[in-house]
Amino acid sequence: MTTNKPPRPNLVKSIAGALFGVQSEKNREVDFSQQRPLPFILAGIAAIAVFVGLLIALSHLIANG
Predict the structure, then answer these.
(1) Residue 41 and residue 17: Cα distance in Å, rounded?
(2) Span 7-18, mean pLDDT?
(3) Are 65 and 48 in contact (CB under 8 A)?
(4) If you average pLDDT over residues 31-51, what whole number do you get?
(5) Residue 45 pLDDT > 90, yes or no?
(6) Fewer C-beta neighbours within 10 Å, C or N terminus of the chain?
(7) In the predicted model, is pLDDT for residue 5 greater than 60?
(8) Residue 6, Cβ neighbours under 10 Å: how many?
(9) Distance of CA 26 to CAs 14, 16, 29, 30, Å?
(10) Sequence-ordered list of residues with C-beta below 8 angstroms from that of 44, at least 6 positions apart, any chain
(11) What is the 3-state secondary structure of 22-65?
């Protein structure tokens, strides 16, 4: 018995595309067809935290260096 599950998305690629606003319509549709949004939510929060951390580190490096 085969099921017609959508292909498992690449979270890193999907999150990066969403953060930079360059995700294709096809990839967005695949992402939103998933039944469980929790992995996308958690990965998005982690990506934003890393991005903010990098900005803070960069600003400290420039201000103190």
Answers:
(1) 14
(2) 73
(3) no
(4) 85
(5) yes
(6) N
(7) no
(8) 12
(9) 11, 15, 5, 6
(10) 15, 18, 19
(11) CCCHHHHHHHHCCCCCHHHHHHHHHHHHHHHHHHHHHHHHHHHC
pLDDT at 9: 54
- Match 């292909």 to its residue by tokens: 7
The token duo for 3 is 């099921």
How many whole angstroms separate alpha carbon 24 and alpha carbon 28?
A: 6
Q: Say what the pTM is.
A: 0.66
- Look at the block and give the residue holding tokens 């995700």: 23
How many residues are given for the chain? 65
Rg (CA), the chain: 16
pLDDT of residue 8: 53
Tell the residue number behind the tokens 């490096």, with chain if given: 61
Q: Mean pLDDT across the stretch 15-35?
A: 81
